[in-house]
Amino acid sequence: MVTLDDYYTAARSLVEPAAWDYIDGGSGDETTLRENLAGYRRYRLRPRVLVDVSRCDMRTTLLGSPVALPIAVAPTGFHGLVTSEAESACARAAGEVGALMVVSTFATTRLEDVARAARGPLWMQLYVFRDRTVSEDLVKRAEAVGYRALVVTVDAPVRGRRVRDLRNAFALPPGLAPANFPDIPADGSSAELAAQLARHIDPAFSWDDLAWLRSLTRLPIVLKGVLTAEDAAHAAELGVAAIVVSNHGGRQLDGSVTALDALPEVVSAVAGRCEVLVDGGVRRGSDALVALALGARAVLVGRPVLWGMAVSAAEGARDVLSILGAELETAMALCGRTDLASVDASLLRPASHRP
Ligand code: FNR
């Protein structure tokens, strides 16, 4: 196992086919899903030479939490689909490599148990429910056990039409449920997952409701799923602490811009007022370097961590994150950059051959 691609191939043969489709797939024609990967190939690196690169420092902070590398675990639901140790294994792995983890609302482990297993900083991802008391309870629980930020996912007011899941009528296997909400889907329903979740997530949640969220908690608020300068500027004006530029790994609006394409306009619109992270399609350390050069403070990685866990639980997740870190470190050194402050847009030029 030398590359993330090796983990992809191994995981694919281990995960039950419908669960694999749920993890691997995107919405619609999966155009955005493919573009997320292709986007990084549109850039080439401009290495500077004769720099002393005997030390390379990848440390940074994310909303004040020190991390060893600018690569974090994106929130993905239902880790129990790939390993019985689920989110606890992931939290352990992230902490061991010094990476931050964002825990999904739809974890298959209770958020308190994930916090107990964690060795590093955690942020809690939040889908706002129609029944606001459920979300209120989740926010309070996360704050009580030391989660350091709330990541509100804003690109999923309704669920994208994921063709593979619809064809498979994908539902969670017996025994697996969103552990934070004992009542879902233990209501006896075997409906397709999207239909189950759609009953709970509030499609009316909008800008004005952020004030309600802020009134519940002292935790910083992060918006995940912003893709335009307009929304980014509005978020910064409202005092949001960070933005994750993201198209949800190509699982929501098919045909949307890639996060990488949207990143420069978001960075420019917030003008330093909040931190900007990005996710979608990072499969190499050099991909992370491109995103950092375009102004991201860190990248998040979704599917590859699940591949790692499918192969060998915490050890696999740790290895995936370590491979990405090692590749980033090598790419930085070969570009003559020894710390993240020296990674900027001068590192990039457009590829002359567009994929
Ligand atoms: C996700 N993603 C996601 N996002 C979120 O805010 N809450 C969630 O519960 C989930 N669940 C989820 C499940 C699975 C199986 C995947 C693949 C993705 C989106 C995720 O946080 C992230 O935006 C993308 O996965 C990033 O793209 P890559 O790294 O998977 O290409």
Automatic annotation (TrEMBL):
Domain FMN hydroxy acid dehydrogenase: 1-353
Entry binding sites for glyoxylate: Y22, Y127, R162, H248, R251
CC annotations in GO: cytoplasm
Top-level taxon in the UniProt lineage: Bacteria
Keyword Amino-acid biosynthesis attributed: no
Keyword line: Flavoprotein, FMN, Oxidoreductase
Residues given in the record as FMN binding sites: 75-77, 104, 125, 153, 224, 246, 279-283, 302-303
InterPro entries xrefs: Aldolase_TIM (IPR013785), Alpha-hydoxy_acid_DH_FMN (IPR012133), FMN-dep_DH (IPR000262), FMN_HAD (IPR037396), FMN_hydac_DH_AS (IPR008259)
Residues forming the catalytic site: H248
Cofactor requirement: FMN
GO MF, one example: oxidoreductase activity
UniProt family annotation: Belongs to the FMN-dependent alpha-hydroxy acid dehydrogenase family.
The name this protein goes by in its record: 2-hydroxy-acid oxidase
Species: Streptomyces cellostaticus
